[in-house]
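Lab notes, practical 5.
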Amino acid sequence: MDTAGRASELSDNGVVLDEEAGWRGLAPGAVEAAYVVRRPELIRVLMSAGSTLAEAEDVVQDVFLRALRHFQTRQAPENLFAWLMTCAKHAVVDGFRSRRREVMPPPDQWAELERSISDRQAAGTQTLIEKERIRSVAEAIATLDEIERRCLLMRSRGAKFREMAAELGIPLRTAAHHTSAAIEKLQRRAGL
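Output from the prediction step:
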């Protein structure tokens, strides 16, 4: 029997009763024939329910694929078209629900969103680099002598060599030497 013959069988339900197996089944090629005959009608119904042509075509294709898989292992429905229509309507409702949860920004805001995402990624990378740099400086500071650490700390707070020498009780040249040595060690060990 050709596709047109199958389509006429399908319009009368497309379901056959397998007396030997004791269950209802679809006639061979019934789903394929339904695709040819019922696809345009399903698309029209879905579009009248608010779907776009592209959405309706996608849903109908998915429903027919589901039908092919479903009826390989399960009993056929009494009315194939009603089953297809119900599945299609459920898929459209599910799509509407998922889109309702999505908040789609207007096209002019996409560029701003893309920039903010790339800025956050860049900021994340910068944060990791900064953390690594801080860790390496802390390790380098830990290797300094006590006098070098104190000189470096005082210098970082804006103290002059004369003030450092007076507070630490060391000559002016020694304060300058320890500060300079501490800075050189940090540059070498921390890669500054």
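Observations recorded by the TA: Residues 107-142 form the longest helix (36 residues). The chain has two domains: 3-101, 117-190.
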